[in-house]
Design brief:
By secondary structure, the protein is mostly helical. The radius of gyration is 28 Å and the shape is elongated.
Amino acid sequence: MKNVNEQFVEIAKTNVETMVDLSNASFSGVEKFVELQLKVAKGAMGQSADNLKALVSVKDVQDFVKVQSSFALPTMESAVGYANAVYGIMSETVNTYAKMAEAQIAAGNEKITTAVEEFSKSAPAGSESGVALVKSALTAANTAYETASKAAKQAVAAVEQNVQSATKASLKAASTALKAA
């Protein structure tokens, strides 16, 4: 069995590594968001230039209305694409955090289980029922965590599918409405 100082050093080392990993995941998300912002800004500038060129070539009011209405669908598609990209970056970052948390919980559970096993080997006679109770509580807690984690993942998957379906339906409806106008 490790002495207490070694255990504290190991815990501190693990915590520092975890903080570095979390920081790296955060910076990665920020980098992706900045790249997205630059891409969107560049695209918006190009689209604005194209729109201005189209407006300058307008010859009458009907042509003006037609050209101006042609801007709506691409703008809406861009906005939806941007929102989806932001959601994707956030989702990826949160998933990275979740995986790290799961790894930390698994490692913590392993350490606790090992400690209980070591304790049970040197436990005084008559403490078997207490050790069995602790082991049973650990098993129940791990089962509850796994069930909750699985349910949360299923809920996230359902929300993502609903968002994608709603986005497609909205774009289709907007496209149909603009074509009819």
